[in-house]
Amino acid sequence: MSAQLDTLPRYRRMAIADLDVVESVERMVYTHPWTRGNFTDSLAAGYHCHVMECDNRIVGYCVMMIAVDEAHLLNLSIAAPLQRRGLGSELLGFGIKQARDCGARSIYLEVRASNIAALALYKRYGFAEIGVRRAYYPVHTGRENAVTMEMKL
């Protein structure tokens, strides 16, 4: 995957046919990635699953559950070689718009306490820390806390 992008991002619904690429990105980005089953279940449940494409290739994706007036951002990922170029911010903005368009009044998420870049991104967009889930995420040497965040829309 080249680190250069020639086109602006575009979004489309994630499809089963995308899962080989999505799963590959997921494994490159996380030490404890979602499984194909996690993505398949999210699609089957009707969650808002979108891929971000640049130059006709998938460079990121997000999975959001929206019910009544709440949205839960479950996964937001950018391919490792393309991180720190504003694509995560662009994708988060897209997700926030989706939540608003569906009538959500708040978005919730959990993020690893050690993920300083993600915490900073979410705070820039107006997410506030509302709690901590102790030992929420697996790590190689045990478990790590998650910071729970909320953004009012």
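(the above was protein one; protein two follows)
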Amino acid sequence: MITFTSLLWIWRGEQAGRWYFVTVPEEQSGEIKAHGFANPRGFNSVKVEARIGQVVWRTSVFPLNSGGYVLPVKADVRRRAGIGAGDEVTVELKLL
């Protein structure tokens, strides 16, 4: 299990809509990276089961060029967890 605390932030790209993410710190990403090498997927993503508070969901984390990974956090998850952009959240990740 990988546990970390990070800020929920918004990426405003050129495409419609906003995407919300939590950044997995680089120093806690080694296990994810190793798992990704052993189980290659598109965009070098890694399947995970994520938990914020009592909310659990399955998704993927995606690598950053600068190191670390980003975890997308859908609107339904944010609503159920009672979190918004700028909130500091504790995340648990289980690699799948």
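Reviewer note on protein two: The beta strands are 2-11, 19-24, 46-52, 55-63, 69-72, 88-95.
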